Amino acid sequence: MTIIEKELTNHSYIDHELSAKLDSTEAFEGPEKLLEIWFYPSAKDIPQESSSKSTLRDIEVAKWVEVLKLVKCEVLSVRSTNSMDAFLLSESSLFVYDHKITLKTCGTTTTLFCLQRLFDVIDAELGWDVCKNKDKEGRYHPYKVFYSRRCFMFPLKQRSIHKNWANEIEFLNKLFCHGRSYLVGRNDESNHWNLYVTETNKSMAQKLSDGDPDETLEILMTGLSHERAQQFIYTRDVNGQQASKNSEEDEGHTLGFKITKETSLDCVYSNNTNSSFHHDAFAFTPCGYSANMMMDEKYYYTLHVTPEKGWSYASFESNVPVSKISENKQDNVQVVNHVLKVFQPHDFCLTFFTKDVWSESFGKFMNVGEQVPGYTRKDRIIYDLEDYQLLYMRFERV
């Protein structure tokens, strides 16, 4: 499975002017804030109204641009499949499904500050009850909310509440019912991971699912190998580059395409089912890289790299069901090793969410030892989060 040239021309939206002028010289904080909101359990559970607009994907791009301004990031481009819209942002990514969103932003973005406006837009555009009905304290209760982040390298450079995890949780608890927060990892270490999750709204009766496992894998890497980090450092003239009329001349996207092929990041998964595959990547100046990969119309994996010496960082996140896509020829441990080979970090933490504690992927991760060559496992922590199991592990290079 490799990307092809047409991937540079079939965006559903692209901002050539932003692409031409975006300068990331001052970017510094790689670790992202990851927000996932399930408004309903599935697309099937969305109430059918007479309005022509019925799902999140019916909200026009201009409205998402408006919401994202509150986050302090912009939309570079959008790729759409039959089941989702993948936004490549000036600071990471946004994935919009019919019934849920996943927003991942790095740097000094103010991710949580878009929440009230997001609910207001959905209420105005779609009229969803989940955005109208509040408890007596004025809090929302969607089906499920997740918010997580690795501890920041430079927390004091963050804006407002994002300087401190306790302040973020206080903010979330004023918006959502029944939230719980966790500090995952060693309190005396500077690389722990934070999680906030709400109780599942079980009053939303979930209809028959399509049988897909709901699994999310995240790998957060620091201290990238100097040689590997150099793959994401280059020079292009931002001030002299003019906004072009077609994406073949869009240097940021063209370089992103080139980097994806050279690093084999389009070959992370063995696509033995010959499922559809779409790609959208961007190379920032003077360094940095972001990519969204979409498989089988409804799955994604996304990568973000800040290669600066002294605070280099890369992240990989995926909801791809590896056994299904590979026809049981590949597992998530092999996926992890493929990603590590590209970046060769000094250390990394891995999180894995699953609804099925007996899944093959969960079992293999539980027994990871010598299967990650060159690294030793420092921590392994398991949480039973109501209807999800969370596995957290931290590794260091031997």
From TrEMBL:
Broad class of enzyme this protein falls into: lyase
Pathway listed: Amine and polyamine biosynthesis; S-adenosylmethioninamine biosynthesis; S-adenosylmethioninamine from S-adenosyl-L-methionine: step 1/1
Catalytic site: S92, C106, S290, H304
PROSITE patterns per record: ADOMETDC (PS01336)
UniProt KW keywords: Autocatalytic cleavage, Decarboxylase, Lyase, Polyamine biosynthesis, Pyruvate, S-adenosyl-L-methionine, Schiff base, Spermidine biosynthesis, Zymogen
Residues annotated as site: Cleavage (non-hydrolytic): E91, S92
Species whose genome carries this gene: Torulaspora delbrueckii (Yeast)
Catalyzed reaction equations: S-adenosyl-L-methionine + H(+) = S-adenosyl 3-(methylsulfanyl)propylamine + CO2
InterPro entries referenced in this protein's UniProt entry, alphabetically: AdoMetDC-like, S-AdoMet_decarboxylase_euk, S-AdoMet_deCO2ase_core, S-AdoMet_deCO2ase_CS
Record-level Gene Ontology MF annotations: adenosylmethionine decarboxylase activity
Gene that this sequence comes from: TDEL0B00970
Taxonomic lineage: Eukaryota, Fungi, Dikarya, Ascomycota, Saccharomycotina
EC number(s) given by UniProt: 4.1.1.50
Top-level taxon: Eukaryota
GO BP: pantothenate biosynthetic process; spermidine biosynthetic process; spermine biosynthetic process
Protein's recorded name: S-adenosylmethionine decarboxylase proenzyme
Manner of cofactor binding, per the entry note: Binds 1 pyruvoyl group covalently per subunit.
CC cofactor: pyruvate
UniProt GO cellular component terms: cytosol
